[in-house]
Q: What sequence folds into this?
């Protein structure tokens, strides 16, 4: 039987408990005192029925709060937990003392040697693990962790030797032995493969605590495995290329290439040769060069910022998509195309079509499956989790421990409008961590341009009454919001007013579908 006694910190309280045990001739085999205010007693040769009459006496001791039975002493629990962890490890593990003798080993060792743990215990580890001088390592003045290629049961293993360091007094330490972990070449290969294996779900890396981002990722999962073009809308820095890459990885084309062309960064002639490639002899080149259409065969081609593609190149791209083939520059031989197109844009393609700046046919050809990446200011719930994720990433690159965000910094990040979106947040945190001396990132460590409006809503020299200016502001606000919330119920919910109140205000200001362009 074992007892757990919860008590206050009083000098002599343990002796008072022991006095009761001595008076009743209780055979105490173990006692442990926990720093949290608990005394543990072990009576292996007594049953609860023979002891329960003493429980009230112990409870009456001054400073005792509670007395109850417990299945384990703390040391027993730790020992059992350690043994359970050790036995579940698939690799051979030894625990040795300062002389190299085996104190403990797991089932991977006993199964490999076909011997019992009791037989192996006390043997010199060097008898079984060859190729490393354990005694010289244990006898060195400053024992450091070591790795070495060794042999165990006539097979090659990588051995990690880790010294067991025990505190000795306030500042000193002593070596109490070591743990030896063995990994076979096969196990190392399995771990290396698992480390470099792609995530099973390419969308898991997205933070989606906000409703709008959760909806976007949910839609992306649905369209990823379809073969039709995807058109991704979103402001600069929202992660359009990131979700495009995730769609590729989640598609049947994930073993093919994912290649990208930024339509805004290249002159028209260069972009054309990048896409189509050129034949031998073209541009006075003795050898031809394949373009992205060929290199991405069986995979995905991302056309970044498609709105900046010239109208001439738009026409050529349209023909490629319509006929499913292309020709290299300087060559008349057609080449079949096997590419999935994903395009991104931060501009309103529909408006560009109306203005004659983007081909209508290409727009409808590309706009089959559409995704909208929300801006960061629409993802308020994601800002802090994103920030913490970036801190961990950047800290690893900078070789430092991840810093914490102060309360003022969290509030600042959540209220900043983020015109540069997720990319701006990532860069701001990288700069802060690079220059940080302490362990906490404060508001002052985040250097961001001011986004306060340069003018106020109302001119300080306005003519008229306060009521007139308030009505003017109210009318302008309703006109701006009405295209996004064209029903009175939606607008009322957005502004926290009743449906009737909003309907009356819209009627008063003459705001309706006929007067406001939706």
A:
């Amino acid at each position: 039987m074992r007892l757990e006694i919860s008590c206050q910190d009083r000098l002599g309280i343990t002796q008072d408990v022991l006095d009761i045990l001595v008076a009743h001739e209780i055979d105490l085999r173990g006692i442990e005192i926990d720093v949290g205010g608990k005394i543990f007693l072990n009576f292996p040769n007594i049953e609860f029925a023979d002891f329960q009459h003493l429980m009230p006496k112990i409870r009456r001791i001054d400073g005792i709060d509670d007395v109850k039975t417990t299945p384990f002493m703390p040391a027993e629990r730790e020992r059992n937990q350690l043994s359970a962890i050790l036995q579940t490890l698939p690799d051979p593990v030894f625990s040795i003392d300062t002389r190299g003798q085996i104190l403990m080993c797991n089932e991977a060792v006993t199964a490999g040697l076909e011997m019992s743990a009791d037989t192996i215990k006390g043997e010199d580890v060097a008898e079984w693990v060859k190729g490393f001088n354990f005694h010289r390592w244990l006898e060195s003045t400053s024992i450091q962790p070591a790795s070495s290629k060794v042999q165990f049961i006539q097979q090659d293993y990588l051995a990690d030797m880790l010294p067991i360091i025990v505190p000795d007094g306030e500042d000193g330490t002593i070596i109490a032995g070591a743990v030896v972990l063995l990994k076979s070449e096969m196990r190392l290969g399995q771990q290396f493969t698992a480390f470099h294996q792609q995530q099973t779900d390419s969308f898991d890396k997205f933070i989606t605590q906000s409703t709008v981002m959760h909806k976007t990722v949910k839609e992306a999962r649905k369209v990823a495995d379809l073969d039709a073009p995807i058109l991704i809308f979103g402001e600069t820095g929202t992660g359009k290329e990131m979700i495009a890459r995730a769609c590729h990885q989640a598609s049947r084309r994930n073993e093919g290439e994912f290649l990208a062309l930024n339509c805004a960064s290249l002159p028209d002639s260069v972009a054309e040769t990048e896409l189509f490639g050129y034949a031998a002899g073209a541009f006075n080149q003795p050898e031809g060069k394949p373009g992205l259409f060929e290199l991405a065969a069986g995979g995905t081609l991302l056309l970044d910022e498609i709105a900046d593609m010239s109208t001439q190149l738009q026409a050529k791209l349209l023909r490629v998509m319509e006929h499913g083939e292309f020709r290299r520059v300087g060559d008349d031989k057609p080449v079949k195309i096997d590419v999935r197109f994903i395009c991104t844009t931060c501009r309103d393609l529909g408006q560009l079509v109306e203005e004659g700046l983007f081909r209508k046919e290409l727009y409808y050809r590309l706009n089959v499956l559409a995704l909208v990446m929300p801006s960061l200011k629409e993802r308020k719930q994601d800002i802090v989790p994103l920030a913490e994720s970036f801190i961990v990433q950047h800290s690893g690159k900078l070789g430092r421990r991840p810093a914490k965000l102060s309360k003022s910094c969290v509030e600042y990040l959540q209220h900043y409008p983020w015109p540069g979106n997720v990319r701006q947040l990532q860069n701001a945190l990288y700069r802060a961590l690079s220059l940080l001396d302490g362990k906490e990132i404060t508001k002052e460590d985040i250097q961001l341009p001011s986004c306060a409006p340069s003018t106020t809503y109302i001119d300080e020299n306005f003519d008229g009454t306060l009521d007139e200016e308030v009505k003017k502001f109210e009318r302008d606000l309703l006109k701006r919001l009405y295209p996004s919330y064209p029903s009175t119920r939606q607008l009322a919910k957005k502004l926290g007013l009743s449906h009737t109140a909003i309907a009356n205000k819209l009627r008063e200001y003459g705001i309706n579908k006929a007067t406001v362009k939706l």
Notes: Confidence is low (pLDDT under 50) at residues 452-457. The longest helix spans residues 380-398.
